[in-house]
Amino acid sequence: MLRSVVSAVAFSAVLATGCVIPAIAPSKNIPGGFAIQLQSPDFPAADGHFMNTWLWGGGDFHLFVSPAGNATDTFTLVDGVITLPLDPIRRAVINGEYEPKDNTTKMFMTERGDPRGVFDVVYGCNPKDDSLQLELVTPEQGTSGVKGDMGVRPFNGDLDFRWQPIGTTVSDADRPWHKVTLVVRPTTPA
Ligand SMILES: *[C@@H]1O[C@H](CO)[C@@H](O)[C@H](O)[C@H]1NC(C)=O
Ligand SMILES: *[C@@H]1O[C@H](CO)[C@@H](O)[C@H](O)[C@H]1NC(C)=O
Questions:
Q1: Among candidates 111, 117, 126, which has minimal Cα distance to 151?
Q2: What is the structure's pLDDT at 187?
Q3: For the segment 175-185, what is each residue's pLDDT rounded down to a tens digit?
Q4: Residue 157 region, left (φ>0) first, then alpha (ψ -120 to 50), else beta?
Q5: Which of 54, 55, 108 most suits a substitution to test ligand 1, by most atoms within 8 Å of the C-beta?
Q6: Which end of the chain is more exposed for a tag (fewer CB within 10 A), N or C?
Q7: pTM
Q8: Residue nearest to atom 8 of ligand 1 (CA)
Q9: CA dihedral angle for residue 181, residue 42, residue 147, residue 57, rounded to 10 degrees
Q10: CA distances from 36 to 12, 135, 172 (A)
Q11: Complete domains list, the chain, with CATH
């Protein structure tokens, strides 16, 4: 009896994590450049797509799910903040178009000093092929202490990126927000 319990536990552990997660946590600084691929198995419109940039005016870049915008593989991560090493430097911020219906706020890239999107970096296993991957998760809005998830939502026929605090109790059926996992895809093998 004990033996079958032990082997059942071992078996389910293997199923839950097929790849081997390194014991040492990854750095919140990733020199890059890298592209950002989305995983959202329950939402095919974003799953496997990439985070693209769209020159929006005033030097800002808005962020859209591919194929909208320009494919971008020059992102870096600086202290958890998605960064474009341009002149001037553009950083991902969470500070626009707050929407009470689903409690979401837009993430976009700017040179200005809006509250940054500060991500944690974790290792994960690719749900499709079990390969080890780096994921950007649980973004915090600036230094607010409020952690959220990153998701995507319809915007003028495309999908843009919106932050939603964890524990949010509202949703908008007319404009459904879907959580996505952001995966670092190095442009050169790491
Ligand atoms: C894509 O990049 C080109 C070249 O920099 C630029 O002219 C164009 O405005 C960009 N398009 C979008 C949607 O950002
Ligand atoms: C919206 O997010 C804030 C945190 O920024 C949280 O305090 C609030 O309860 C959330 N509202 C709803 C309706 O979920």
A1: 117
A2: 81
A3: 999 999 999 99
A4: left
A5: 55
A6: N
A7: 0.90
A8: 55
A9: 70
A10: 30, 9, 26
A11: 2-186 (2.80.10)
